[in-house]
Amino acid sequence: MRLFPGVSLLAALLTGVTVLAPASPAGARERPAAHCAGQDRLRVPGAEHQQSVCLDDLTTAGLAGTPYTDTADQAGLAALGTRNPSGVPGVQIDGYFPDDSRLNATHGWAHDAQFVIRLPDHWNGGLVVTGAPGTRRQYSTDALISDQVLSRGYAYAATDKGNTGPDFFTDGRGPGDAVAEWNRRVTELTRAAKKAARQRYGRAPERTYMTGISNGGYLTRWQLENRPELYDGGVDWEGVLWTTRGPSLLTSLPVTVARSLGQASDEDLIGAGFAPGSRFLWPYHEKAYWGLTQKIFRAEFDTSYDPACPGATAGGTVEQIFAPCASDAAYDYASRPASVHRAVAKVALTGRIGKPLITLHGDLDTLLPIATDSDVYARMVDGRGRAPHRYYTVRGGTHTDGLYDTHPDRLRPILPCYRSAFEALTRWVEDGTEPPADRTIGRPTHGDVVNSCALEG
Hints:
Layout: H1 8-15, H2 33-36, E1 49-55, H3 60-63, E2 90-96, E3 114-120, E4 126-131, H4 142-151, E5 155-159, H5 177-201, E6 207-213, H6 215-226, E7 233-237, H7 249-252, H8 254-260, H9 266-271, H10 282-288, H11 290-301, H12 318-322, H13 338-345, E8 357-362, H14 374-384, E9 389-394, H15 415-431, E10 439-441
């Protein structure tokens, strides 16, 4: 299914208004009692509610159409033709931690801080943790990340970050609190998942990796900077950069709103860091990303800027949700009150990572321009010099791989490069085999671009 130019599908996948598929027992058969023995004794520490099920297949191939995944919330993240492994039996635990917000309606719980933990029967002793990208929920990276790592024997844990959807910024007592909660929820889940794995397997994970795409990439950076003792390394894919003085989304996106209103030129966007070669992607992002992203994050960190346009509103029409606020065209983060900068400081990155990290970023990312994001973060990490870091630019890569299907002659999916990077990380951590030096991964003109990517050569 192509994502452009239709907006109805985008509304579902970006705003979190998808409806979870009803239960279909035939699609997720429970295995015999001997296989499931003991699953009810598993307890996720700190969880307010949980339910466990023992399944023939924990991957999306086995879970599609059941309550144990949500394929609609994964829409647009992967290219058509992506091959995923299947046939991984094990235990899945769904639940939520105590929280007072109610933005996540998955399972009919109307409760945030939802999580999923998957514990495969054949365990390799490792754990992979992630947080949802964008404003999506806990199943959003099942096809991107969960399927692959489960097939290799890793346990897997993912969180909705504690708030979801276009009104995520309504959570928290003050500016910046909603995003700050994302970091706390990942830490909470990591600790709990380690203990759940110990219960299931009789020993704690030997290796724990943090990873994610977009906001999940930001979470990876933050965890390795602030909670490095919990992890052995991480892979950051198109991570969002927040810095107290900038750059950030609040410094790069206002010009896009101005351009959509006829108040800025293409050259102004290029001057702000957007790649000249990404012009063909601008109409799509104008419809689906720029205005919405600017206003919801401005509403999160700068609540007083425009009371008449506080951000997307629950129950609003698709057009209202995606429409930019006209006042955002003139938004100037540098001149905003110190309170706004303090709000961003709550979640800002420093580059002071404490464990090995691999960063990937597409040179045609048109939501997070590489020049104002990962190029900057790589310099921040290099300036700190505390832990090993590799940085790979993916030629023809953009923010989500679903756009490859519309522009196969100009783009390349990043997912196969991400999978290669994860393999490289585990060899780096576990065997001491260093990954290739920082480099640009070219866009091949032949071969299976959707499913293969070499980090060097």
